[in-house]
Amino acid sequence: MSNNNIESGTARAKNRPERVSIIKAKRLTSKARPGYVNRYVNDEPGNIEERLNAGWVIVTDSSKDTSDVHAGDGSSLSTIVEKVVNKSVNAPSKKAVLMELPEKLYQEDLAEQREIGKKIETALDPRLKKIPGADYGEFEKFQK
After folding, report:
1. pTM of the predicted model, to two decimals?
2. Pick from 21, 29, 40: which is nearest to 100 by CA?
3. Rounded CA gap, 34 and 47, in Å?
4. What is the SS3 assignment for the chain?
5. Separation CA 106–CA 66 (nearest Å)
6. 71, 89, 101, 105: least surrounded by Cβ within 10 Å?
């Protein structure tokens, strides 16, 4: 490998954006009303409907004037709160819709999700099943 290749590789590394951990990646957030939990939900087929069926509600912003004086009635309507979540030039744009759920229902959903997780964990770990002979018992570590 020549020095030119090494130098150009170093230059490319300097121009490359710094890696951001998925855990630290920015998430869309919005201040929730007291007693509610909210999330931005990608507007993809079935996504919004699924949440609506689960009790989530689309958040609207009545402060935005969406009236049309040419429609005969100048009354103001609410508009859906949404954000563009894919700003890549090479991909079609994608929007996310802000939805909210009462805190009580959210906590019930979390409890149900934890119960499902415990059942799966129990099914995968024979020690949690309390079946005689399902585990190998205790053992001692031998030292050399």
Report:
1. 0.59
2. 40
3. 25
4. CCHHHHHHHHHHHHHCCCCCCCCCCCCCCCCCCCCEEEEEEECCCCHHHHHHHCCCEECEECCCCCCEHHHCECCCCCEECEEECCCCCCCCCCEEEEEEEEHHHHHHHHHHHHHHHHHHHHHHCHHHHCCCCCCCCCCCCCCC
5. 31
6. 89
